């Protein structure tokens, strides 16, 4: 699944193509609605939460301070995503 994080109107938005993340039976999975992006609200410089549902995103930074990925936490599951570009 491809997820994009963008800045618009001074706010972060997360949008996905939708569907369930594929993986082996042992891998955690997450479900994201497709279509309109979800507004991310800050709780710290690297941690954000969703207004619409009970989930959070924590951005992971490399040694140079650039974002290298994030971890989404939802309903007790952690799903890691790496930055593609």
Q: What do you see in this structure?
A:
The protein has 85 residues and is an all-beta fold. The chain has one domain (3-82). It is built from no helices and nine strands. It has strands at 3-8, 11-16, 19-20, 31-32, 38-42, 47-50, 55-61, 67-74, 77-82. The strands form two sheets. The chain has a seven-stranded antiparallel sheet, with no helix packed on it.
Provide tags for this entry:
mainly beta; 9 strands; 85 residues
User: What fraction of residues sit in β-strands?
Assistant: over 45%
Helix content: under 10%
> How would you describe the shape?
globular
Mean pLDDT across the residues is 82
Secondary structure class reads: mainly beta
User: Largest beta sheet, briefly?
Assistant: 7 strands, antiparallel
Short précis:
This protein is 0% helix and 54% strand.
What is the topological layout?
Blueprint: E1 3-8, E2 11-16, E3 19-20, E4 31-32, E5 38-42, E6 47-50, E7 55-61, E8 67-74, E9 77-82
Antiparallel strand pairs: 1-2, 2-5, 3-4, 5-6, 6-7, 7-8, 8-9
